[in-house]
Design goal:
The termini are far apart. The chain is of the alpha/beta class. The longest helix has 20 residues, at about 100-115. It has helices spanning about 25-35, 45-50, 65-75, 90, 100-115, 150-160, 200-210, 215, 225-230, 240-255, 275-285, and strands spanning about 55-60, 85, 125-130, 170-175, 190-195. Helix 7 (about 200-210) packs across helix 10. Bound molecules: adenosine-5'-triphosphate. Belongs to the AAA ATPase family. It comes from Vitrella brassicaformis (strain CCMP3155).
Amino acid sequence: SRRATARSIFRPDFNFEELGIGGLDKEFANIFRRAFASRVFPPAIIEDLGINHVKGMLLYGPPGTGKTLIARQIGQCLRAREPKIVNGPEVLNKYVGQSEENIRNLFKEAEDEYKKLGEGSQLHIIIFDEIDAICKTRGSTRDSTGVSDSIVNQLLSKIDGVDALNNILLIGMTNRFDMLDEALLRPGRLEVHVEIGLPDENGRVQILNIHTKRMRDSNRLENDVSLQELATRTKNFSGAEIEGLVRSATSWAFNRNINVQDLTKPKDVQNIKVGQADFDLALNEVK
Ligand code: ATP
């Protein structure tokens, strides 16, 4: 009925802080506004407004900035089922017609549920990592993976299948925005484009906090380490590179505590702590 209350698509205990995503608050808020907000309202209200839900979005940006992390964590926020995450190249198959069938199969469960339950169906999220592997500009040369126009066409026709998609949200991810077939990016298809860029200084502090949380909580980070200062020294680092920096620093701490002549006889395995000197070595090592 029109009186129906909000549809609870989010877990009641959902807490942004716990998602372990640093420096992407604005991007996350945009994603939720564009793709999820309308789905909280009763279908009758959406009918009154005469709009359709967004069917698809594209997250794009350099490697290691948290695109996959966001995709995975969206599942944590939602009450509904786990998103299906597929890797672009995986969908491709050397047998003629098999790739198209793989794409059809991805949508099948959601389509069947919609046929049975209509608007009562849960939201199905399908995430395509490296979507550029499938959706390169059509007409560009057929490469060794057998990418062909018919795969792009199959995906487009699935996205355009009107009714069936009220319960589907497609999220594509790519490092190569420039390579994507424009037809895929039009309104009604992957229409919302969210750039996931390199973190700014504040974002880097958040990411450093996330990836040193356990060692701080267990008092294994020396007091001489300033995360703020590390953030200023890691300009142009991605989140993944910051995580790598922490891992490298930790390896230097391990190194101080072992006997390199005989790895089976560590000097001190109990009192390991990661300090600023370890981070200095790590900064020289990575990037
Ligand atoms: P690619 O385009 O190469 O697939 P991506 O943008 O999907 O890269 P992720 O796989 O999400 O990058 O990042 C790799 C890892 O780096 C994450 O699992 C996480 O540990 C860390 N990381 C990246 N970005 C962030 C971030 N913003 N906050 C916290 N950790 C991050």
